[in-house]
Amino acid sequence: MENTSSNFIRNIIISDLESGKTKEVITRFPPEPNGYLHIGHAKSIILNFGLADEFHGRTNLRFDDTNPLKEDAEYVTAIQEDVKWLGYEWDGLFFASDYFDTMYEKAVLLIQKGLAYVDDLSADEIRTYRGTLTEPGKESPYRNRSVEENFALFEAMKNGKFQDGEKVLRAKVDMASPNINLRDPVIYRIAHVPHHNTGDKWCIYPMYTFAHPLEDAIEGVTHSICTLEFEDQRPFYDWVIANCEMPNVPRQYEFGRLNLTHTVMSKRKLKQLVDEGYVDGWDDPRMPTISGLRRRGYTPEAIIAFFKEIGVSKTSGVVDSAMLEHFIREDLKMKAPRSMAVIDPLKVVIINYPKDQIEMLEADNNPENEKMGIRQIPFGREIYIEREDFMEEPPKKYHRLYPGNEVRLRHAYFIKCEEIIKDENGKIIEIHCTYDPETKSGSGFNARKVKATLHWVEASQAVLAEFHLYNPLILDDEEENEDSHFLDHVNPEALTIKHGFVEENLKQVKPQEKFQFLRHGYFNVDPKHHSENRLVFNRIVSLKSSFKL
Fold it and tell me: Distance between CA atoms of 245 and 214, rounded to whole angstroms?
């Protein structure tokens, strides 16, 4: 992340290094492989890797795979791809499951110290016994089992003697604590489920809140950076480190998570969108997943610049998604070549232009970046323009094409509408125009002015293309209310597909190439559906922005 005072964690690291408390900065990015990463995870990736890089430290990529019911090797692969795409390389690749033997030993140590016990209460009973935020909890009737009995039962749990949910291992902390997370939290549960990494070796698995501090300590992590919802878990984090007698003592720090307008930030809800067919997979360009943003056409540079701008704070807030769009525009305006595309075509026949003649016109590939040079574009008797650029009966102040009016074709000539051709249902199927050969772009013609310039594509060499236009997937921000039915807020018009034409020189484009189509916005060649015989462009973002930094 950027060297900025708004990054309070960076200031803590500087202080720790200057005082000698920290010799080498070691961070980690610890996703659970139960789904694809989203834009909120990108903030954590950039923060952890960025801080370690700045202070010449190390960052581990660690998969917190303690719940085989929800995890899959597919997600492990996808997460690695996302981290690499953002531009980061991890120093160590680890799994929580690498440490299952050690975690088991530490659980036994807690039993031996009288700090853990096997409980027969059901999950609902444990929840009831735990109390509320205003009322203390009640001790389980199994809390005072002997060390020997707890050890024997825990061994039996490990050896598959009990069914799922029949028993759990709980830490013995304080059932009267004002922090509900310290009221004897569960640290092991039974799950007769094969694990993607350890197979059938285990039928008991550690809870995340027990495993996480142990993993950090084993790896020598110095600054364990979490989102704000883990702040109340920090006392138990420290309790585990101290009572499991870990040689390294990491420190947990919390920062405000990212919330974007019109965006779901819950992997559970994102998975529901995928499973119920609301979107075209985890990498659907409407999704806020890193793979979805990549497929839509966002760049790592834009995402990193966005996070540098918003900084790191101790509180969570909602950021306008228009701010993220601002940074992709800023990144692409110098990189993306310009081109012309007609997404809702209307044919124009220039009746006084020579038949069978094609002339080549010059156009800048990017007026803001001269290094990108110029291209040749064909012009002929028949062209396509946008249907919205013509009106038979225009309102006042409409300056585009209509009967008797003259407009400029970008990079080409003035044309004037002379006749409208309709089908038997009265729909306009083409318009006939005349052109003025004296008005060629670059000729210096200034005898008269026109008030509109239209983009176009020459018809005989135009390449058929499919355009995917996106609107916010969520109509408002009610989806963050757990009590609401967030699927009711899915926008049915989040995707519009149009079929039109692009310039002939885009015929051989490759997946992930990006262009600015004049007036329409920035587009990315879709890597999933694009083929030699099917050109598919995803609109990354429109050209206009209401966002101001």
Answer: 10
Active-site entry in 267, 294, 381, 408: 267
**Token pair 């140590």: residue:** 109
Secondary structure E strands in 172-233: 186-190, 204-206, 223-227
Q: Is 257 a catalytic residue?
A: yes
> What does the radius of gyration of the chain's CA atoms come to, in whole angstroms?
31
User: Given 58, 257, 294, 338, which residue is catalytic?
Assistant: 257
Cβ neighbors of 263 (< 8 A, separation 6 or more) are: 39, 288, 321, 472, 473, 474
What is each CA distance from 440 to 7, 20, 126, 350, 443, in whole angstroms?
Answer: 55, 72, 81, 14, 6
Sheet arrangement for strand 495-502: 338-339, 514-517, 521-525, 536-541, 463-470, 495-502, 341-342
User: Which residues, including other chains, have CB under 8 Å from residue 276's CB and lie 6 or more apart?
Assistant: 487
Share of the chain residues as helix, strand and coil, in percent rounded to the nearest 5:
30, 25, 45
What is the chain's pLDDT, residue by residue, as a tens digit (549 residues)? 444 446 899 999 999 999 999 999 999 999 999 999 999 999 999 999 999 999 999 999 999 999 999 888 899 999 999 999 999 999 999 999 999 999 999 999 999 999 999 999 999 999 999 999 999 999 999 999 999 999 999 999 999 999 999 999 999 999 999 999 999 999 999 999 999 999 999 999 999 999 999 999 999 999 999 999 999 999 999 999 999 999 899 999 999 988 899 898 899 999 999 999 999 999 999 999 999 999 999 999 999 999 999 999 888 888 999 999 999 999 999 999 999 999 999 999 999 999 999 999 999 999 999 999 999 999 999 999 999 999 999 999 899 999 999 999 999 999 999 999 999 999 999 999 999 999 999 888 888 999 999 999 999 999 999 999 999 999 875 444 454 578 888 999 999 999 999 999 999 999 999 999 999 999 999 999 998 889 999 999 999 865 555
Q: Pick the catalytic residue from 2, 32, 301, 359.
A: 32
The torsion region of residue 390 among left (phi > 0), alpha (psi -120 to 50) and beta comes to beta
Residue 457 backbone dihedrals phi, psi, to 5 degrees: -140, 130
DSSP assignment letter at 74: H
Q: What is the 8-class DSSP label of residue 395?
A: P
Q: Is 32 a catalytic residue?
A: yes
Angstrom distance (rounded) from CA 292 to CA 223: 30
498 included as an active-site residue:
no
DSSP for 10-62, written as a single string: HHHHHHHHHHTS-SS-EEEE---SSS--BHHHHHHHHHHHHHHHHTT-EEEEE
515 within 8 A of 339, measured Cβ to Cβ: yes
Please answer whether residues 13 and 33 qualify as being in contact, where contact means their C-beta atoms are separated by less than 8 angstroms. Answer: no
